[in-house]
């Protein structure tokens, strides 16, 4: 082939490739950014991950193109050009100031900074700022100015390294008014307000955090389009007066070890453990939550697909204004007002143990004047149980739906109330059983049977209260407190058969199951004959 023709074809091909790359440059860059999001940050080639909040921080900073400046601290030091700045030494009244339009990496090598009139590190302007931690670094800010962080950045900020960062602040500890990303490091933060705050997002991949905050522990504040919190690992010990972790948008936690304690008892302040204005998703991790308010809370929906939870709450253990979905996990609620609460609750799996001073699992849309758990009934809201192992010990209603209850699988045990103004199972619309095993005991005043069932289901009300184990057919259960009402639904029972209820070796009732739904005995106290509906909601 003629060389001129070959050259012409090559030129045309190069031009075509260039056009394609130009037309699809945004999609290509997004794909590259996504692929790079799992890469590790190293000293020579720090990579900014792409967070779920669509952070605009550069993902391919080539630090080898920047020179390194070694600085020994002695008062204020201002960075006015891009580059790498390695700090040593200490200052008793000074700060590091960043004011440039380029990328800046700050390396802290065992520094001590105390600032009385500004943040210890103050990013006035920059493209991206990275802070690398080496050794033990201590930053203190006693400023009373409006710049309210010991580390304060008006631009995107990433912190990483093998070192330790000790922070003492009159206001917040670490603040970014854009995106804040923490990859690694050890953080000891004591603040008079919030511990860690990002406006557009906070993303944490790892590290060890000890936060003592007079406000919130970790939070975001953007209430318009962003404000997410994403945690993929790390160890967190948070003691906060207000919320432990609080997002103005969504929260997504996939791993980590969390010990969170909140202490405010004010009725006007929020003191929740993990709180999201939007949806809250947890797929793994270990959680020890001790809170004066809800331990896990969403103004939207809560989704739990894994994790181990130990919860002690002054209000609700798990609360969502909309939907609660539990697919897996080990959840132990040792103390609560109401254990799990939402308008639509679905439990598909997991091991769940609830102790509550009022309702154990409560379905309410929150439209009554008394809020969630009030007297408003709606046939559209529901509790659905398709699987899992569930135990409820409730002073109020055990399972309480201001709508309907549907049970298709799983194993449910309820130790209900010892008074006649509540019931082990309470609903307003329907109670349908098509599978699973349900054993619920309580007092008979408000006891209710199912409205429909495809397996043998029986409610037995007794004239005497007992506190010993009982046997019905091949089913044996030992309640934790006294009872005079027993509800059982199980595939182990057969319609058309008769069974004796034996307590303490004596037969107290014999019941013939003539249909899938059988009631025996009469209620006493506040109610009449066993019936559907009529209980306190």
Walkthrough of the structure:
This protein is mainly β. The protein is built from two helices and 53 strands. The strands form three sheets. The chain has a 34-stranded mixed beta sheet that branches. It has a 15-stranded parallel beta sheet with strand order 2-4-7-10-13-16-19-22-25-28-31-34-37-40-43, with no helix packed on it. It has a four-stranded antiparallel beta sheet with strand order 49-48-51-52, with no helix packed on it. Strand 51 (498-503) and strand 52 form a beta hairpin. The longest helix is centred in the N-terminal third of the chain and has 21 residues, at 3-23. The radius of gyration is 30 Å and the shape is elongated. Residues 3-7, 19-58, 368-375 and 524-537 have low confidence and may be disordered.
Overall structural class, as computed from helix and strand content, comes to mainly beta
Average pLDDT, to the nearest integer?
A: 87
Main sheet properties: 34 strands, mixed
Low-confidence stretches: 3-7, 19-58, 368-375, 524-537
Shape: elongated
Percent in helix: under 10%
Question: How many helical stretches?
Answer: 2
Q: Estimate the strand proportion.
A: over 45%
Give the termini distance in whole angstroms.
Answer: 89 Å
Radius of gyration: 30 Å
Number of strands: 53
